[in-house]
Design a protein that fits this description.
Blueprint: E1 2-3, H1 6-11, H2 27-40, E2 53-63, E3 71-81, E4 86-92, E5 98-103, E6 110-114, E7 118-127, E8 132-141, E9 151-156, E10 159-164, E11 187-195, E12 199-200, E13 205-211, E14 215-222, E15 234-236, E16 239-245, E17 256-262, H3 267-273, H4 277-287, E18 297-302, E19 307-309, E20 315-317, H5 322-331, E21 338-340, H6 347-363, H7 369-380, H8 396-399, H9 402-420, H10 422-432, E22 441-443, H11 445-456, H12 461-469, E23 474-484, E24 487-496, E25 508-514, E26 517-523, E27 530-535, E28 542-545, E29 554-559, E30 573-576, E31 583-588, E32 594-599, E33 605-611, E34 618-620, E35 627-635, E36 638-646
Parallel strand pairs: 2-11, 17-18, 18-20, 21-22, 23-29
Antiparallel strand pairs: 1-19, 2-3, 3-8, 4-7, 5-8, 6-7, 9-10, 10-15, 11-14, 12-15, 13-14, 16-17, 19-20, 23-24, 24-27, 25-26, 25-28, 30-31, 31-34, 32-33, 32-35, 35-36
Helix pairs in contact: 4-5, 5-6, 6-9, 7-9, 9-10, 10-11
The chain binds zinc ion (ZN).
Length: about 650
């Protein structure tokens, strides 16, 4: 899902009939509404619902007239029993609704509500492991409206509309279900009766549309597993139009339907803008893996909430902007095909959708990717703390925090791409999207990261600890000084914005520029204040930290090469032999303490040894491969650099 802005995000929370009237933006009203919201936002992620059975299928039959905020209907839940002697069946369901009857094997079992959001049915006889059966619940009433407004009534151009938006805990407000992230229904049927001038949006394929004088019934069938919060409908006097798209994953000649339900007054602009989703569908299909519901459809339904919501196979959206289409479409892979196992891992939905939309904007040049990186990184660094991992899933504001879940989540993916390189990163992502244990089900962060580890051969536990669980970001200070002709010393220091991470392990690209030259070297400091000795074949005049903005880090860069001309370094020692083979010996003019450091030409320190005055000054070099190295000698305040060569044996 994507709220259009933080302001709207807060403002529309929990209100039945929000009218987008700018005059309402009055500070006091805003404050009061937020205060009202915060109480209702404390919700439990898990419940007892679904214990002991596996949901196979929901057949939902609803009557909805958008002129009246009301629902009536029946939900039949087909299930398989997971343990012997199962008799009590719990559903997530709001007691604001009236249950007219419950049917189990043609009989009327005992049933009732427990608290505000749990409903139970006592089956007789008890059922045993592996048995398949069903319970039908007939109900009616005026649903609650929790979260982002789970069952909303509004209007457009004078016409009424009702839409649902159950994410994350609002399904139970309007239908009996299991909304925990444990069990997706394997398939659903939605049979929705609406007034004769209306259409009802739904998940899956539209099998039938039956018209009578007074009503129209829409029969939607979805044959893929679906989480309860992604089941949705929206009812108004929609205009419909449909196109076909061929996806790279489809056989030649095959195509898929893209079906749009839009307000009649928006048909012209929708007809122009919504087809833009087709190249994005093709792009994602080739980048992340086949579109998961290509045997059914993709589509959009217009609604009045301030943003978009990725209902499975039919995203609801307020407008038809490229970025909103790209965001909601990405969720069909990241969120719907594979759903976050807990809202603690919601970045697997929202960080991914944010990042994929940014990549689509770059691919189709609808926005500048570097500008997106700049503004997104600045927005995340606007506060010193906060983790991508959600520490409080009862707080919807925290779960859908724009800075942490969306922006920082997206930047973590960008950094993982940099860390692993594109081939390993995308191979890991495609393997994740093809993992039979995860697809059409749920995944945790570690299950996602395991795929990246497998494709790259790298251990990402430190990355997760620092960037996912840890808070804040690093500030790197780079200081470059000249040590001799073509020899530079680079010192990389680091401070962090939050005490939960004392040091971030970064793969830092640094670009060195001189007249007619530039070169980029990669550094991986493993502690703050690490020094590198560099041999660069040109006079460095400037240095840039992470010029392509891969890293969520601030930097301070200092180049000291244009200071006064260097004095010729004082020679206080002799290095021999040069070229060397198994050892290097240093002879000092005076018997003083000496520190010897040996560097590769890319600046990596390979060896460091401190000698007391008079100690034999010899380092063993038989482990080094042949080639050039830099030797740094430090004695008191004097330093000397020698380029040395290890000869072939
Ligand atoms: Zn989203």
């Amino acid at each position: 899902m994507k709220p259009l802005s933080n302001f709207i995000f807060y403002f529309v929370f929990g209100f039945f009939c929000f009218q987008s009237n700018a005059q309402l933006f009055d500070f006091q009203i805003h404050e009061k509404r937020e205060a009202q919201l915060s109480e209702g936002l404390r919700l439990q992620e898990t419940s007892i619902a679904g214990s002991g059975f596996d949901v196979l299928h929901y057949r939902c039959e609803w009557a909805i007239n958008p002129a009246q905020r009301f629902i009536s209907g029946r939900v039949r839940c087909d299930f398989r029993i997971l343990a012997d002697t199962q008799s009590l069946f719990w559903f997530d369901f709001s007691s604001a609704l009236t249950v007219d009857s419950v049917v189990f094997r043609g009989q009327s079992p005992d049933f009732g509500f427990s608290g505000n959001n749990l409903f139970w049915v006592k089956a007789n006889p008890v059922l045993n492991l592996g048995q398949v059966d069903s319970i039908s619940i007939f109900y009616h009433g005026v649903p609650n409206n929790s979260g982002f407004g789970s069952f909303n009534k509004d209007s457009h151009a004078g016409q009424p509309i009702i839409w649902t938006l159950s994410c994350p805990y609002g399904s139970r407000d309007w239908w009996p279900c299991v909304q925990n992230h444990r069990d997706k229904a394997d398939s659903i049927d939605l049979i929705i009766r609406v007034p004769a001038n209306c259409r009802a949006a739904g998940n899956g394929k539209l099998l039938a549309e039956i018209q009578t004088d007074s009503s129209r019934t829409f029969y939607w069938k979805h044959k893929h597993p679906i989480a309860a919060y992604l089941v949705a409908t929206a009812v108004t006097n929609y205009a419909a139009f449909s196109t076909k798209v061929h996806l790279p994953s489809q056989s030649e000649g095959d195509s898929m339907q893209v079906l749009n339900y839009v307000y009649p007054e928006a048909l012209t602009s929708a007809s122009f803008n919504l087809p833009k989703v087709m190249p994005i569908l093709q792009y994602y299909d080739s980048l992340a893996g086949p579109y998961p519901f290509r045997d059914e459809k993709y589509g959009h339904a217009q609604f009045g909430w301030g943003g978009g919501m990725e209902h499975q196979t039919m995203s609801f959206m307020t407008d038809f902007s490229f970025s909103l289409q790209a965001h909601e479409l990405a969720h069909q892979w990241f969120g719907n095909h594979i759903t976050c196992r807990s809202w603690r891992d919601v970045w697997l939905n929202e960080g991914w959708a944010t990042y994929m939309a940014a990549l689509a904007e770059r691919r189709f040049e609808t926005a500048n990717f570097q500008s997106w990186l700049n503004t997104t990184q600045s927005a995340v660094r606007a506060s010193a703390g906060g983790s991508v991992w959600v520490d409080d899933t009862s707080n919807i504001n925290r779960v859908f925090d724009s800075r942490l879940t969306y922006k920082k989540g997206a930047l973590l993916l960008h950094m993982l791409r940099w860390e692993l390189g594109d081939p390993a990163f995308w191979a890991g992502v495609r393997a994740y999207q093809a993992d039979p244990a995860l697809v059409y089900g749920y995944a945790s962060t570690s299950q996602f990261v395991q795929h990246l580890e497998a494709s790259s051969g790298k251990d990402l536990s430190q990355f997760l600890q620092e960037w996912f669980y840890g808070q804040g970001y690093p500030t790197c200070s780079l200081k470059l000084s000249k040590e001799g002709l073509g020899i530079y010393r680079l010192r990389i220091s680091q401070t962090t914005s939050h005490s939960s991470v004392p040091f971030f392990h970064l793969k830092i690209p640094v670009r060195f520029t001189g007249i007619g030259h530039d070169t980029t070297l990669i550094f991986r400091p493993d502690s703050a204040g690490q020094e590198y000795l560099l041999s660069l074949p040109f006079e460095v005049s400037a240095m840039a930290f992470d010029p392509q903005k891969w890293l969520l880090a601030k930097s301070v860069v200092q180049v000291l090469t244009n200071l006064a001309p260097l004095k010729k370094p004082k020679e206080f020692a002799e290095v021999l032999p040069n070229p060397f083979t198994d050892s290097i010996e240093v002879r000092m003019l005076k018997k003083e303490a000496l520190k010897i450091r040996l560097y590769s030409l890319s600046g990596e320190e390979l060896l460091q040894k401190v000698f007391a005055p008079g100690e034999p000054l010899r380092i063993l070099t038989h482990n080094l491969s042949s080639g050039s190295y830099l030797l740094l000698l430090e004695s008191g305040k004097e330093t000397m650099v020698r380029k040395v060569l290890k000869a072939w044996k």
